Amino acid sequence: MKRILTGVKPTGTLTLGNYIGVLKNLKHLEKEGEMFIFIADLHALTLPIESEVLSKNSIDITCFYLAAGLDPTKSHIFLQSDVHEHAELAIILQNYLYMGELSRMTQFKDQSKKLKDNAIGLGIFTYPVLMASDILLYDVDTVPVGEDQVQHVELCRDVANRFNKRYGDTFIVPKAQVNEVGKRIMSLSDPTKKMSKSDPKGDIFLLDDEKTIRKKIMSAVTDLGSEIKYDVENKPGVSNLLTIYAALSDISIEEAEEHFKGKGYGDFKKEVSDVVISELIPFQERYKKALESKEYETALKEGAKEARKVASKTLERVKNKIGLINLND
């Protein structure tokens, strides 16, 4: 059976960008094969985070997955820290990647600019190693990711190929999957920047109420002129709103452009607001149900059990290849 893996860091409140880029499409992917979906709580430790925030975000994200309509018996949702094989394989794989490769990672360079030299943790540098471990443990063919994570998947492919060349076929070499429509949702206040959990005015958070959602969209930056046209360079604000509308309406950008032909910005923003609200309010109700019933606890426990069954076999295969002896069975 085909396997698909995805995960998210519990480092902030998820946004509409996260919903369109990943959550919305998971139910469809569930039909294609066995899903392994993890809360990347170990990755969250690479930057300072309060313990209460980490645990709350982890629960919220699990409930978001359930609210997205996933069936826990088909999609295994689990905490990264509950499957020790993730960390153990990362310790092994770090010996098959090079410092030069890791230092060229865009995420590492971006984070390094924001932090003082003496405050850059080793975890930020080795982040792609743990991510490669996350992926390779499950023999997955496809990894649904945001556009900014494609570089990490490519590095994962490099280490898998390198390992296979040295020890023989061990890992399946996965490929990244990025959704064409909605793959990059931008900030409403600055459409040249990605919607990224840190801009209260420009981000639509998944738990924003109807009034807040409508206010943010109606206040969204648009562009000079009145034509509703997809042109990222000259009309980034309008292009972003068109992308949101098209993604949530399950239509193409061209179809969205045709729909709004001859309409003004006011009507345009109102319709975008309507489609966002019609999608998120029912989603929020399902989230509340999963949270209040504590359905997330059962999902995480059962998900971790299923994940360990696969991860332990992969790790044992790797250990045998490299000569690590196991006398505990």
Written overview of the protein:
The chain is built from 14 helices and five strands. It is mainly alpha-helical and 329 residues long. The mean pLDDT is 91.
TL;DR?
This protein has helices at residues 16-30, 41-44, 51-67, 85-93, 99-103, 106-114, 122-125, 127-136, 150-167, 210-218, 236-249, 253-259, 265-292, 295-322; strands spanning 3-8, 34-39, 75-79, 142-144, 175-177. It has 329 residues and is mainly alpha-helical. The chain is globular, with a radius of gyration of 21 Å.
Instruction: Describe the strand arrangement of the main beta sheet, using strand numbers.
Output: 1-2-3
Level of helix content? 40-55%
Q: What is the percentage of strand-forming residues? A: 5-15%
Apparent shape: globular
Distance between the first and last residues' Cα: 28 Å
Q: Averaging pLDDT over every residue, what do you get?
A: 91
Would you report the number of β strands? Answer: 5
What is the chain-wise order of helices and strands?
EHEHHEHHHHHEHEHHHHH
State Rg.
21 Å
The helix-and-strand class reads mainly alpha
The low-pLDDT segments are none
Largest sheet: 3 strands, parallel
Q: What is the helix tally?
A: 14
